[in-house]
Amino acid sequence: LGAAELTDVVALRRKILVAPHETLAETIEDLAVMNRETGHIDAAEPLAREAHAMYAALYGEDHAATMHAMGTLAAVLGTSRRWEESVAAYGALVERCERIPFQHDNPDCGTYYHFLASYLRQIDHFEAALTANAQSIAWRRRLLGDAHVQVGRALGSRGLILHDMGRYHEALPLLAEGE
């Protein structure tokens, strides 16, 4: 579906489904993602917040769907260059990943650590970025294996952080092998 069609689907589902509803939350989140990816950040943020609130009402903050919607909101905040807000949201997500036993097998946790590291890098918190990046690599290796493309991306990100820190000899091999 394109943006116009997905907007129509959301409008129709708002008429026929009683919120909070999982299908409605999912469709709203999809529209938020589409708006973010097409540069319509002002439209994406309220949708991401609504989807997150709906999932939280349905399942609580510690549910994987609620966490995913919070990750969508964190991505919107990061895309709009509100890095400190994005860092706070990703920080809350990785705290849940570590605290909640059933999240230990959630592959999204590696992604949350990855973007936490990325936005920490944007605000020049390089040591914290390295720590978050190490966690991203560990989660991704454990759940996806060493050869997975997401491990390569995390290694490439580590190279960028090290480069920004002036640690060029450490950065170069990672940048050469990471994606």
Task: Please tell me about this protein's structure.
With about 180 residues, the protein is mainly α. About 80% of the residues lie in helices and about 0% in strands. The chain contains nine helices and no strands.
List strands and helices in order, with pairings.
Elements: H1 3-16, H2 22-37, H3 41-59, H4 64-79, H5 83-99, H6 108-122, H7 126-144, H8 149-164, H9 168-177
Helix pairs in contact: 1-2, 2-3, 2-4, 3-4, 4-5, 4-6, 5-6, 6-7, 6-8, 7-8, 8-9
- Secondary structure category: mainly alpha
Let me know the largest β-sheet: none
Beta-strand share of residues? under 5%
The assembly state of the depicted protein chains is single chain
Total strand segments: 0
What's the SSE pattern?
A: HHHHHHHHH
Number of helices: 9
Question: Could you give the distance between the termini?
Answer: 29 Å
The value of Rg in angstroms is 17 Å
Overall body shape: globular
Average predicted local confidence, pLDDT:
95
> Runs with pLDDT <50, length 5+?
none
Helicity, in percent?
Answer: over 70%
